[in-house]
Amino acid sequence: MDFCFPTVIVSMPEMKEVELVSFDAEGTVVTPDFSQAIWHEAIPALYARRKGLDLAEARMRVFEEYNRIGEQSLEWYDIKYWFDYLGLGSSDPVIQSCLGRIAYYPEVTQVLSSLASEYRLVVASCTPWELLHYLLEDIEPYFVRVFSSISHYRQVKNPDFYIRMCEEMGVHPGHVIHVGDNWQFDYINSRKAGIDGFHLDRSRSNCRESISDLTQLEQILLL
């Protein structure tokens, strides 16, 4: 069996200067189950019923539209846009029907509890607020602020977003840690803003440059 250990990019002297720890939401503290239920299951099923299609055909058409827009576009994240565009009516019944799929990764509550006693914690997510507040409902007390780049700034998580977040929190980017599972949005873009970014790869497929769970971040920060 091969064992791999993440490369720790932030040095020990820098660790002592950390004032703020920022977490992505989906794929980092919250599992993707809720989003999968909405975007991959409920929306195609509703589209199939509305258009008189079988589910496979409906899923193919819906996914083609998702891919046409792409994750760099604001519309990608906007559930109201998609329900209007696809002619599905109100999104509220679908959201409510999927709430039971919200789940947190096993280590999340313990790690947040531990770090919250030493650092200010925030969420920095692309998820729009109308979904994000449901995702964080059970763990929101651990965070001093929740930032949705889409809802609050009308942008994806580019370097400008991270700079604006730091300005609002009154902290220099060099004193901030951010962790998330998207290589571009969470790792590359946060580091371009001057933040010490950590890439979270729960699949352990990129061991050299990533951490595999949040307990590794906790160990680094609390050394």
Architecture of the largest domain, according to CATH?
3-Layer(aba) Sandwich
Mean pLDDT: 91
Share of helical residues: 40-55%
Q: Major sheet: size, sense and barrel closure? A: 6 strands, parallel
Helix-strand pattern: HEHHHHHEHEHHEHEEH
Give the C-alpha Rg.
18 Å
Strand line-up of the largest beta sheet:
3-2-1-4-5-6
According to CATH, the homologous superfamily of the largest domain is HAD superfamily/HAD-like
Helix/strand-derived category reads: alpha/beta
Beta-strand content: 5-15%
Please give the CATH class of the largest domain: Alpha Beta
Low-confidence stretches: 1-14
| Number of individual domains | 2
Describe what this molecule looks like in 3D.
- Mean pLDDT is 91; it is low at 1-14.
- The protein is 46% helix and 12% strand.
- It has 2 domains: 12-31 and 103-221, HAD superfamily/HAD-like (Rossmann fold), CATH 3.40.50; 33-100, no CATH class.
- The longest helix has 19 residues, at 33-51.
- The protein is an alpha/beta fold and 223 residues long.
- Strands 3-2-1-4-5-6 form a 6-stranded parallel β-sheet, with helices on both faces.
- It has 11 helices and 6 strands.
